[in-house]
Structures
1.
Amino acid sequence: MLSDEERREIEAELVHHEYPRGACIEALKIVQRHRGWVSDESLAAVAELVGMTVDELDNVATFYNLIFRSPVGEHVILLCDSVSCWIMGYERIRQHLSERLGIEMGQTTADGTFTLLPMVCLGDCDHAPTMIVDETLYRNLDEAKVDEILRQVQNGAS
Amino acid sequence: MNGERPLTQNIRAGEAPLDLSGYEAAGGYQALRRALGNMSPSDVLNVVKESGLKGRGGAGFPTGLKWSFVPQSNAPKYIVCNGDEMEPGTFKDRLLLEGDPHQLIEAMIISGYAIQANEGIIFLRWAYHTAARRLRQALAEAYDAGYLGANIMGSGFDFRLQLHVSAGRYMCGEETGLLNSLEGRRAIPRTKPPYPQVSGLWGRPTVVNNVETLCNVPHIINNGADWYKGLSAEGGTKLYGASGKVKRPGLWELPLGTTLGEILEEHAGGMIDGVRFRGALPGGASTDFLTEQHLDVKMDFDSVQKAGSRLGTGTIIVLDDQTCPVGMVANLEKFFAQESCGWCTPCREGLPWAAKVLRALEEGHGQMRDIDLLAQQCRLLGPGHTFCALAPGAAEPLQSAIKYFRDDFERHVTEKGCPWR
């Protein structure tokens, strides 16, 4: 259940590791880059490549915040809910995002475009509030900025 | 106290970092040349020891001493850079990672040489996409130029350096959790002893140092231990930061031991108009609150400890009078409860409990005895009850909030809800 490309990338990663399991987190990230998330089938295929049992690998996969074991939307919004962003207006931004997207934290829009997730400190506290959409960091957020970002991302400018 | 800023000298706000030739033109890789050409590994270790450099990740352990615990043998060893930086309110290593990647690479080669490690790993948190891109670029340049790989500059020393980008979990910042993560396991802590210097990654001697700590090393090699000690009364500089409702949130490289008040007033520009200072966590989420009476406290390891807190990461989170201290601590404890790895019972069970009680107070369901319950909880979460420092760290902002803002906790009970809402 891995594409040739995923398999090639994981094998290229394995070369750098004396012990294959050292590559398992990177391998999961490779699958996720291609598919958006890690299904049971993908996980089983990765487990075989890195020499772990399925349960051993799932034990690892479910520990890390950024390995998704359920499907997500086309774009994933990670809104920082840690202390500096909380002081600087996280709650307002969360409400605005929820209203604009019509979803709560942890949900995906009906059209599958956006998934909204709370995320721990993004390490950009001097520009709070902040969020990451896909791999782009957005800072000093306010309502108008959020609207503009959503518009841009939806139009493929992200 | 000469105003030198070695760590950030090559960093210009808003500009791309120096590439290899720019870094070399600015004096880069001279320290590596000197270390490999004229110094033995123990010379390097000794000058770092003599400089008094202490870990900048939060614990403040003397770096040279840490290195000296590595057994002298021909067995494979590792040097690992802890660039996980997931402490809420902390963003200092980001500047060094994004702003001067070659400085960190040079630092790691020299530090690897000192402990005779031939393998290095930079453990980077997932959120730092820009840093990852720039580090990959810089690593490729350093390999091409022969600063990395076999027989570096004809010295006979081999050093390979890899980047590992985490999949995200606060526990990865704990050094033994980090090592488990590199082994493709859950980032749970390991029993110490054995310490990683003796048995670390894959059971081999391993040193884990913070980004900022490592970045000091090339400058100490170039300029000597006395120069380093002369940078401040306490030795060296420190990256200080401030976030919250100050006029100019940001980061500044200042002499170690600059006072809390000077950082907040002169560098962060004081509070934004109409807002009053009430307190601050001096070094990230897991440090005790300091208040107005502590503005003269020098932000060095010993002085902050004497004031009842910890220097931690040196990035200050400011509490103002329009922000609820109970709400702030509720936010922190929710973070710690969520990021607890679940390995130790007090942390796994105690933190969600503390977070729940704080939420109840915020929502107006609190009782007076909850405040004492929280204080008792802090003692149970304290040092000695868990494998790692997550739970004791989580107790610090809570116990000090109860100490300094007890009236505010009580108002949540008497007014049946949060007075700030």
Note: The two ends of chain B are 45 Å apart (CA to CA).
2.
Amino acid sequence: MRKRDQAYRSIPMVASLLHAGFPSPADDYRETALDLNSLVIQHPEATFYVRVTGDSMHDAGIRAGDILVVDRAITPADKTIIVALINGEFTVKRLSLQNDQLALLPANPRYRPLLITEEMEFQVWGVVTYCIHQLR
Amino acid sequence: MKPKVIALVDCNNFYVSCERVFNAQLHNRPVIVLSNNDGCVVARSNESKKLGIKMGQPLFQCQDIIEQHHVQVFSSNYSLYADMSSRVMKVLASFSPTIESYSIDEAFLDLTDLAIDDLTEFGKTIKARVMQLTGIPVSVGIAPTKCLAKVATEVVKTDSLFGGVLDLTQLAEDKLDQMLAKVAIEDVWGIGRKYSLFLGNYGITTAKHLKDADQKWIRRYLTVVGERIVLELRGISCIPLETERPPKKGIMCSKTFGKDITTLDELTEAVATYTARAAEKLRQQDSLAASLTVFIRTNTFNPNLPQYSNSFTCTIPYPTAFTPELIRAALTGLKAMYKDGYRYKKAGVYLSQITPLDAVQPDLFGDFSLAQHVQQARLMALIDAVNRVYGRDTLVLAVQGTTRAWAMQRLRLSQQFTSRWEEILTV
């Protein structure tokens, strides 16, 4: 895809040669503009976006409607915020690995922690790396 | 020359696996994915295979099983599958510098020069990594040739004993022969149904038979392609990896309509839309086309209706990738062959005489100037960019229509989880 973009962009360049204008003095200093992707995405092939519903992670700064950047390449550690699969449902919670006990912790006093037991179907889907929150 | 080490990584039930990444309710349940217009089964989960649902089976034929066993049914979500495929390929590319993306769900990796001690362990690492990063389960077959690697993945997929990875490079000859004796001839890579019937007449019904066949005889009846397959089964690598796909010589866009079309207006919309799509593919590979063929046909599966089919080829005076120019050619052809009173079921557009963009000499003094060429390319690049960023068909030509009553039926389509913000997963 990138190759194509370059190929098509290169066509107008040929045309500008025909105009034979003065070169811009800034040409030699041109750098690629900042790209938000390069900041928030570490592993493009493993990065997915999910939208938040509910307020169980409110105190961690994750509000309903926010978009989370989820990186599956990162191995979760204690206190990592993850997207998990629990009994066939997706949820976003803080992972707790204290005292050899897996638990999912909400960030809202109105919700209770969930202890993961043997009989539950539990899977880490990915690690949340950024939260995109719209201010207006 | 040291023997090659080739791995084939094959995604398990790929379309179903893609759906499962984003829908946890589908795990351990029978799932199927349907072809265009929800016609027949193109992917099955293992649970669906066990229920006896066949590949390519028409949907109406398995309606009973579906209801009885609550089989989850999906339309083909091609944009999702294409995105997941490119993710899998990127992960695989990190394991070897020499990789051939053979199909949407398979890739060959050349591991010869990587000096890996334990190939089975390496295969397991690939499998685990693809699973972690993308959520897609894969099978890995490792062998000295592509053909044998293909055999290895087939064996792995049918026998859970191997845990998804099988290395044939260390296998003793007699053990390998035992394995090949169990592989049916039609399942050998490169042997189509036609050849397997032919070979069956001569008692060649398994991969082992083919391996032991007389090379000269094979060359005479199956040409050089068949001879290569025989050599590959004997462990002699002669089909190299195609790491760079050559640009296509012809570009086709054809589809069966969601419902029969009976008017020229609707047919015009469909043909214009397919032409625009083909032109987009043409620009994606930085090429221009000088010939366009348009074809239409009625429903050949319904012999009670009057049948008509025709095609028309237009030569374009100078090679182009400019959508309006190609649509003009396509519609000229369509109008020339359209006949009233038929129920049309399918139309298609085929671009040929394709040349790379940089090989074209604009006719500086003719009707078609470089400036004009540049202007057209700029306009097309803009339209492609808008459609890439804001979703397909954001910018279209008016002739492509807006109602599209004929468009593909995808009644059970899942969300565009990775390509539309409005449709991403919610948690």
Note: The mean pLDDT of chain B is 90.
